[in-house]
Amino acid sequence: MTTDSRKLALFDEEVDARTRVRALYRRHRDEVYRLALRYGRGDPAWAEDIVQDVFVKLCRRIDELDDDDDLGGWFYRVAHNCCLSRLRRQAVAESPAVRWLLGRRGAARDDRRAEHRAGLLAVFDFVDALAPKQRLAFCMYHLDGMEQAEIGEVLGVSKSYVCKLIKKATAAIEEWEGRDGT
Amino acid sequence: MARSQELLERLAAADEALHHERMSKAASRRVARHLSRELDALEQPSRGGWMPMLTFVAGAALVLLFLRWSTTPTPSIAEAEQARPEMAVLVSGDDCRAESAETTTTRGACRVTTRSPSMTIDTIDGTELEVAGRTVHLRTGSALFDVEKVRGEPIRVAVPQGEIVVVGTRFRVVVDGTRTEVELYEGALEFRDESGKVTPIFAGQLIGFGGTAAPVPPVAPAVEPARDEAAPAPVRPSPRSKPAAEHAPASSDAGPVIEEAERFRREGRYAEAATVLRDALKRRWPRRTAEVLSYELGRILERRMKDAPAACEHWQAHLKRFERSRYRARIERSMKTLACD
User: How far apart are the first and last CA of chain B?
Assistant: First the structure.
């Protein structure tokens, strides 16, 4: 393909899904990756899986999405929802009952995590103790500075429920602090 | 509480540190490959439908087998003639010299029309062309091909440097001594050189093979298009000559325009991007380039500048100019949303 044809194809991003997905992947992969790193406690493999999940969803919905220049919000929402699903699955897989049934030990995950960002990300320990939805609401509120109503829109819950999630998360952290402090 | 605040600050610092992280190149490529496979799978027909399809094919095969056994196997003469691979060739044009034997050879400004598959070839003075079965030999000169969707064996255009495989498209070929140039207006083509190397050609592309670049003569069709009529039409300036003339400038001019419009668009300077595109559209472009530029201008007017009257006016002009626009469905949806008259 000549340079001009390539430029024309890139300019004309709406023409075919493949070109659009490619352009959107280049533009948004890092921001999705960084969000996923936050919820995956800095685990690159975990974050890559989330990036893949998000962009697979994009491939399936590309025809419904119209304005490629205005998909930041869509990526933010889908990335959070993918993280939430994965955290929930992980929580189930790591529950004592399932671990006992599958004969797994819980330490393996911690070891793997320790390899990645041991020092810096130790602060995420207390966020890790929260339920998945609480964790997302707490981080969106305190780290992304989002309003409760906006968080409700992303998570698909009411504003009052978001308020409750954040309060519970704060209470859990205070309790954790108390335990840690003693 | 102070400790909570401190924890939040540490959390924010850790999150900030993660903000400088980027996906590794290997991971990025791995995900990109996965996405490519995903898109391939989405483009394929669903796998769930193979069972009914198989049943249908098996049933159809049984019926055909039964019919074949119960009817006479000898084909009629007419059927036998129709089964011949050669195409019916009709040549017209005042300045055209044609010889027909086993093959049809034309010299000069001619219009060659074939049926099954339906194809029109317009040549200019100094062009020598031979139609032999489904292969067209372009010895020298310039020819504009307009080929309907070909079923079965593709049409081949043989040139000194190789051959062009055609399954339905509109393109121009110029053979000038040792150099061949192919300009594709619609569809897709493949160029196979003598060594068997295949070069795909996409719509809007102008590609040259062999020799050094030579000026490309314009195609002046000899007669008005009469694709579906056996009789040649009277000689007069052809509507087909308009798109041919429109394609006269090389597509290589589009680069700076695209770059400039893209830069303005990214910087949010939509009025300037629209001006660039508007100015560009006053010039002559290959059809696809013009269509993309015009569509982009409409999008900017509609979505960025929120100028509904201008957008409506532009979309109407766009649909008028590109009657078979690939964006027609989207534009009509937009016009409905904008409540254009």
Answer: 63
